[in-house]
Design goal:
Length: 147
């Protein structure tokens, strides 16, 4: 099975698989999130001064953003193997669960004395920005290769 890697063994002989393309995109997102989180942390420290809660908030937010992206990738991989109605249902259910996950994580950050909730919330918008940047970079790379 080239191109597909086992992620988690659910039951004997039954694997949740992610294609190499998805793993590659997850790695790119992880790198982008680390860079964006570092910039965000620096900005928060410049404005408010260093606090451990800002560091924890930034790390927690970046982790939640990555997990949200990871769950999206898993739901997409599973949905493309189903018929149209089952795929739509799976994606809708996945979207709802991902939003509940994010809401619970934000709630925990707000209730925690150790996490700056603003530093946690800001990284949640980073995946969209990273996707736009990576898309522009890929588009530029394709144009250069075509010339």
């Amino acid at each position: 099975m080239t191109g597909i890697r086992p992620l988690v063994e659910k039951e004997k002989g039954d694997f949740l698989m992610l294609s190499e393309v998805v793993v590659y995109e997850l790695k790119r997102m992880a790198i982008g999130l680390l860079i964006a989180a570092a910039v965000s942390f620096a900005v928060f420290c410049f404005i408010f001064g260093y606090e451990n809660s800002i560091l924890l908030g930034t790390l927690f937010g970046a982790a939640v953003a990555f997990l949200n992206y990871f769950f999206l990738a898993v739901y997409i991989e599973r949905s493309v193997k189903k018929n149209k109605n089952a795929a739509l249902s799976a994606m809708g259910g996945g979207y709802f669960l991902r939003m509940v996950f994010i809401a619970v994580m934000i709630y925990l950050a707000i209730k925690s004395n150790y996490i700056n909730h603003w530093a946690m919330i800001v990284p949640l918008v980073f995946p969209r920005i990273i996707i736009m940047i990576l898309s522009a970079m890929d588009s530029r790379k394709r144009r250069v290769q075509e010339e």
